[in-house]
């Protein structure tokens, strides 16, 4: 008779095997997205032979791919060789407002994955593995590869969809007159805020490449007449004129010195009564403690922390880490409030010291 101890041991072994196969699952996802199988099946039920023919693939290998996707919870096989897309898999149908196709394409791309081979070295030395593998830093590499840069911008936009829906109603934006989104990319987050708060005006500040899709986003959201674009380099300066400076998913890309520089430029143009609002995960001081949102993400935030180590040289931070980097920039951290509806993000409000 199986004992509780034996079941626990089997579960432990299963966890290790599951984790060891993780990179294979990611590449299965990548192949499926690049072959367009979720689009080809759509809302219906299709034989694998038809999907293979439309994808320009062989029947038997396609069946095996679709069955692997079914095992991962993204497809359902109703009868031998006939498949449909599950609700989770439907998030990989392109063209949906909540699609994650670009996110998957980017985070399974060799530009992200190859540097992970150097994780051991990065842990030993603290050096950025990406720079050694590609001979340049991550963002310079994007600048030399327009298609990859476009995928990156789209992936960041898709990753922000949930937060963009929650954020406008999770903070008192109504007490401000203008918001500058520092490193705001295509403007999707700021567009949501402006749409929910008609009196506000806004500025999206990013590199010229980062702003490439912003005009379409702002126009589509009906806020283009209240929002301007400010190309530039936040390591040199940020544009003045706003009383709120929003920084979402930017600081974790950079070292503490670089993060303090970005925040310092925000502090330099902050008017009396102005605020800096950072939107990023806040790690608990000890893994497994603190806000339940961090426990709910399956450890993704900690994997993101390692991704910053190998690819960018940045890091995810605890509240104490944020307090220290803000202090260096002349800011005081006032509050750090979890966003349960957009876990693992928190709202970190700062004011001038």
From TrEMBL:
Describe the location of the O-methyltransferase dimerisation domain by residue ranges.
18-94
Enumerate the GO terms in the molecular function aspect.
Answer: O-methyltransferase activity; protein dimerization activity
Q: Which residues form the O-methyltransferase C-terminal domain?
A: 116-331
InterPro entries the UniProt entry points to: COMT-like, COMT_C, COMT_dimerisation, SAM-dependent_MTases_sf, WH-like_DNA-bd_sf, WH_DNA-bd_sf
Q: Which Pfam families match?
A: Dimerisation, Methyltransf_2
Active-site residues (renumbered): 252 (proton acceptor)
**Key words, A-Z:** Methyltransferase, S-adenosyl-L-methionine, Transferase
Keyword S-adenosyl-L-methionine in the entry? The reply is yes
Record GO biological process: methylation
Q: What is this protein called?
A: Methyltransferase
């Amino acid at each position: 008779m199986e004992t509780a101890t034996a079941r626990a041991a089997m579960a432990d072994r299963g966890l290790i095997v599951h984790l060891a196969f993780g990179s294979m699952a990611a590449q299965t996802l990548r192949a499926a997205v690049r072959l367009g199988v979720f689009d080809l099946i759509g809302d219906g039920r299709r034989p694998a032979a038809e999907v293979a023919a439309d994808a320009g693939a062989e029947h038997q290998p396609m069946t095996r791919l679709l069955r692997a996707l079914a095992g991962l919870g993204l497809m359902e096989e109703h009868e031998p060789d006939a498949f449909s897309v599950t609700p989770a898999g439907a998030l990989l149908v392109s063209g949906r407002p909540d699609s994650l196709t670009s996110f998957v394409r980017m985070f399974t791309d060799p530009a992200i994955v190859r540097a992970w081979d150097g994780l051991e070295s990065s842990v030993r030395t603290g050096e950025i593995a990406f720079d050694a593998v590609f001979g340049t830093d991550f963002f310079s590499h994007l600048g030399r590869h327009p298609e990859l840069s476009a995928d990156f911008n789209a992936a960041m936009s898709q990753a922000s969809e949930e937060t963009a829906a929650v954020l406008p109603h999770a903070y008192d934006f109504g007490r401000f007159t203008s918001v500058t989104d520092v490193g705001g990319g295509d403007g999707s987050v700021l567009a949501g805020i402006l749409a929910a708060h008609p009196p506000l005006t806004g500025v999206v500040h990013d590199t010229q490449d980062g702003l490439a899709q912003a005009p379409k986003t702002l126009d589509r959201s009906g806020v283009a007449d209240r929002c301007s674009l400010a190309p530039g380099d936040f390591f040199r300066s940020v544009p003045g004129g706003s009383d709120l400076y929003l920084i979402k998913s930017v600081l974790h890309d950079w070292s503490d010195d670089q993060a303090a520089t970005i925040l310092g430029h925000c502090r330099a143009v902050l008017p009396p009564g102005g605020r800096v609002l950072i939107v990023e995960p806040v790690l608990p001081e000890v893994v497994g403690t603190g806000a339940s949102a961090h426990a709910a993400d399956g450890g993704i935030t900690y994997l993101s922390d390692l991704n910053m180590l190998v690819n960018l040289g940045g890091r995810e931070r605890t509240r104490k880490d944020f307090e220290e980097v803000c202090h260096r920039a002349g800011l005081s951290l006032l509050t750090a409030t979890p966003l349960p509806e957009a876990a693992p993000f928190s709202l970190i409000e700062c004011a001038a010291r």
